[in-house]
Prior knowledge:
The chain is α/β, with parallel strands linked by helices and 251 residues long.
Amino acid sequence: MAIILITGATAGFGKACAEKFAQNGNDLIITGRRQERLNDLQTTLEKQYGIKVLPLAFDVRDQKTVSTVLGGIPENWKKVSVLVNNAGLAAGLSSIEEGDLNDWEEMIDTNVKGLLYVSRAVIPWLIDQRKGHIINLGSIAGSQVYAKGNVYCASKAAVAALSKGMRIDLLPYGIKVTDVQPGAAETEFSLVRFKGNEDKAKGVYQGLKPLSAEDVADVIYYCATLPPHVCINELEITPLQQASAYYYHRV
């Protein structure tokens, strides 16, 4: 049994990861901005799988709160084996000259700075144990920039670079780092990007069988349960009908 810390666990990849790790007998620290959803997930997973869940409601963009909340948890909960840096989002889809500055701020603060804030709080725990695994949720967009994706793509390119940097810096401590890069996956992602416009969100996946949150969670779980001497540094996953950020076969 291990302790798994998952950010952004109230929906999408994060929630699916929580369910996958709980199914396999792991205790969880789950974080997110929506307290009610965290509490509901805690109740469900504890009842269904007999594991322990510690729900922590905070916004990863708030450095002081991240440091205070994570620093203040009981010592026995700090024996984290896997950190899944999942919290992230896309906001808007605009050409660079028309970009919304608030959207830019939100993406950079969440996808880059939030990942750093949480990692900075947790990495000392892993170093103390001389083992652990950090799994960062990147994106195919981090290496393949698409039209109007500008700042979102840049934020995920930063995740890719940070993952490589973490891997190098943490090498002496036996800590694994993996950058998981999904392609088209149908979660709340597009609904958030388009500010709740369901028609636009559905249009992204028209003619496709996209990845599900569970598909990505399965891959993350696989990466996290390999033998101690095996580390997947970077993994790109797409649906069959998507060959890259640009090439789809819609039917």
